[in-house]
Design a protein that fits this description.
Layout: H1 2-21, E1 34-38, E2 49-53, H2 57-72, E3 75-78, E4 87-90, H3 94-107, E5 116-120, E6 124-129, H4 139-144, H5 155-163, H6 173-183, E7 190-192, E8 200-205, H7 225-233, H8 241-248, H9 255-266, E9 270-272, E10 285-287, H10 289-299
Parallel strand pairs: 1-5
Antiparallel strand pairs: 1-2, 3-4, 5-6, 6-8, 7-8, 9-10
Length: 300
């Protein structure tokens, strides 16, 4: 038993050595890379820009973060006449983005061939890694930040990243992401996995001040309760008509819901995700910039 344990430790050291000190770790661990995919027109658009970062884990991590800082992140400074301090906010706080990507490198499964994918959408950044978190961690705990992992995946990788001052470890990643988003005035982060824990998604939403508003928001905008409910359920992500009905508690499309969807579209509060194909089976409704502002108001 002792000999088997020593051999297992030796294999672990060799694997970590190849990940951090070999110029092409993907040779031994297919998928050990970071792919940054830009969707300038959204996922329904035809334009896609992709960058792939390879090399030792710490190098690809630094290169990907440098790319995101230089190409994606924006700062907005607002000066006020009644005080000396200006307000400085970012479309996405770098601390949250860094922690989410470092966690993906730390906790992903290197026996899986799927790379880490960073999806840059017009209104959000999504970081997807495989597999998902350990079953001992409940998703509800991630939302309220009160959790402790009973088991850590890739402890040796975590130790290297800690020595390089790229992570703190000890279940601090999720709280750091929450705090960075809150400090920047951004919406709370969103975490998602499935029952089988086959993937893990971290979603960072765009700061409200960077959301383009197609037209001034008329104040007040008179909405029915059904219209308000539809805006609320679409706040987190686009939904199909059937998903909206289910969220409202309906099995089939009734007249007042149909009218509410039509009016919200006419008011430019909702838009199709595939506008060129209104009857597409993959069609969903999403909030416009103006719709998101109102949705956040009615959600309070």
């Amino acid at each position: 038993t002792f000999q088997k344990s020593c051999l297992k430790d030796l294999d672990t050291f060799r694997n970590v050595g190849m990940m951090f000190f070999h110029e092409a770790p993907e040779t031994f661990f297919p998928g050990a890379q970071i792919e940054v995919v830009h969707f300038p027109e959204g996922v329904a658009g035809t334009k896609i820009e992709e960058r792939i970062f390879r090399g030792p884990l710490d190098q690809q991590l630094r290169d990907a973060l440098r790319h995101l800082r230089n190409v994606v992140l924006e700062e907005r400074i607002t000066k006020f006449p009644d005080r000396a301090e200006a307000e400085r906010v970012f479309n996405y706080p770098f601390a949250a983005l860094e922690e989410a990507l470092v966690n993906a490198v730390y906790h992903r499964g290197y026996d899986q061939r799927e790379p880490i994918e960073v999806r840059i959408n017009p209104d959000r950044i999504q970081i997807v890694s495989f597999p998902g978190p350990d079953p001992s961690i409940r998703m509800a705990s991630m939302r309220d930040r009160r959790f402790v992992a009973s088991r850590y995946r890739n402890r040796r990788i975590g130790k290297f990243l800690k020595e390089l001052e790229m992570t703190e470890g000890r279940s601090t990643g999720i709280p750091i992401i929450h705090d960075a988003m809150k400090k920047n005035g951004s919406p709370p982060p969103h975490f998602e996995t499935d029952e089988g824990r086959t993937y893990f998604l971290v979603e960072l939403l765009l700061h409200p001040s960077f959301i383009p508003v197609e037209a001034p928001v008329e104040a007040p905008v008179a909405l029915s309760e059904t219209e308000r409910q539809i805006l609320r359920v679409c706040l987190d992500h686009p939904l199909s008509k059937q998903e909206i009905l289910q969220a409202l508690g309906y099995e089939t499309l009734c007249g007042h819901v149909k009218k509410a969807l039509q009016r919200l579209t006419e008011l430019n509060l909702l838009a199709y995700t595939i506008p060129e194909k209104p009857n597409s089976r993959n069609q969903k409704r999403k909030l416009t910039g103006k719709g998101r502002i109102i949705a956040e108001e009615v959600a309070v």
